[in-house]
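Field reference: sequence -> structure
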Amino acid sequence: MDNHEKYFGEKSVQVTISKFEAFGVCVTSRYGKAAEIIELINFSKHVCLSDVSGFIISVFYDSKSSCCSFEIDSSLKETSIIAKRIFEAAIACISQFEWFGTIYHGVPMDANDNGQI
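Structure field:
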């Protein structure tokens, strides 16, 4: 098996640790894709600096659908200031995500490939 097949196939794991905590946020990438993990770390840093990370229970990047989802505090409403800060962080850091039942597109996945952590 060559490196391309080993690391760049649909279900290939690029990073062994695919579930971890970053800036106080529990994050997971289904298949441990490096670009997704970079987005997750950038997002976690952004919400931490915005003082809203405590309202995020977990973040899951589904590598199969290339879509990220958030488990947030159940008391948050979509129109709350805290939810808006989380949404702004997602737009700035995550290429595709589900937010209150709607799919949104943020930065292109390759935009975070330059290691903006």
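Note: The radius of gyration is 14 Å.
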